[in-house]
Amino acid sequence: MATPVIEARDLTKHYGATVGVEGLDLIIERGEVFGFLGPNGAGKTTTIKLLLDLIAPTRGEVLVFGRSPRDPATRQAIGYLPGELSLDERFTGKRMLEFLDSLRPAGRAPADPKCRAALCERLYLTAADLARPIREDSRGTKQRIGLVSAFQHNPDLLILDEPTTGLDPLVRESVFELLAKAGQDGRTVFHSSHVLSEVDRTCTRVAVLHAGRLRALERVDEMRRRAKRKMTVRFGVPAPLTELSLPGVSVVSADGSDVELRVSGELDPLLRVLARYPVKDLAFREPSLEEAFVQYYRGNQVEDA
Amino acid sequence: MIATLFARNLRHQIRLLAALLVGLAAIEVIFVQVMASFDQSTGLGNLVELLPSTMRDLFGAQLAFASFPSALAFGYQHPVVLVGALAFVVLVATIPAGERETGMLELLLARPVPRARYLAGVLWLVVLGAVVLPAALLAGGMVGLAMVAAPDVVPWTRYLSSAMGMMALLLAFGGIALLFAAGARRRGPAVARTLGLVLTLYLVEVLGGLWSVFGAVQWASPFHYFKPIDMVMQGGNNPSHVLVLLSVFGATTGAAFWRFTRSGV
Asked: Structure pTM?
């Protein structure tokens, strides 16, 4: 069995009495584009810092490529974009990229300038952008420089914390393409975000973190499948609301002959009811990850309560 | 990798360092000119007699050596000179705290940079500052003596021991600043703590000459082991003094590395 790219066992970080992360168990395999979801303060950044050995765990351990992230060779195989990016304001963008690339173990080849140029082009970074001191750059330009620095040395693992922050829609599209391409190339992406639609587009599997604890870990399509689906029905007669009160079916809204339902589980009982009435139109919509997440999250909060 | 990090740090501080080097050298040149002028007109011994008795008590034995050669050594402990040199060393040594505060440290240490090497890149610049700043004073003295046509009477090499003592003093405070910065999350408090300590220890040494209560703790001040005038008059460093200062540097730097490699970013 291949060594997982990331393996966390009982990973725990406490800041005094505050829980950063508690008992996180996680395995991420090669080639996965993995979404790491959670609201602000859930512990996403703490987990990332543990993955990079920027902080030490209170308990448990994390291995990256089967090795400790303290090993510089491990970190050479990682491309990292922090959530709150800070670059050396006195450098130009070009110098910054060269400087970050130069911080590599002896004997390792520098980043291919052609690869860097291609990345810059893809992220709409012009030569003029790169020639300017970073202190004069906009937030979006700094973010694009940060993205190039994460990708430029062709790392096997990309750890990206809110990678599309401050980017315009066009560049955001390019970032999604880069993430998809990385997955296709067999590289692993750890995409931390609180924007569900982004993770929905890019990731194959997601973990949901809340208050430092892992609340869900499953495939995106599975999460969607388990979520309640929305069904809109237009009857030829006034909607038979009483008969629609079935297990697993709830009426979201009703307006004369139109009714919107939320359905989970088996469809047979509902279809039998519908078959007894004239139906003019029927629409069944797959839930987005966002809807699935919100339902999941609300369900867990009820359980917690 | 250390050289790359050092080069970046040097690049960021090069203007300040160059300005200090020129400034310190110029101060020593002017100092030589002024002292030579006093020595030829009034005589430095007579000048000492004009000082208030409190001042004479304060400088004590050092004034017994009031002469042109010893007066030149005073340039090495002139408050302006010490403030300039110490400010540079403290500013450089607190770079890690500044980069932790801005988030730059996170980006750097996420690369394959061992923490000890990052800190070594800072330490190299501290050492460079501690070496070249006293050297600038030495160069200023050499130029000044040549200008007053006294290089045969007072060779500039006589001040090598003063420069070496100053280097040891700067290293000691550089180590202390590095230790404060190694665990600090913000640069401001690290600088403030270091400068506060420098000022306190300076006062302990100065007031120790006046009041016995401070005299009893003078040994705890690195300034107690830096006597440039004595060095010149006695023809060399007191090796134990230099050893004490270098031990402070070694101990604080070692502690800084230990702390930095274990602290979170």
From this structure: 0.84
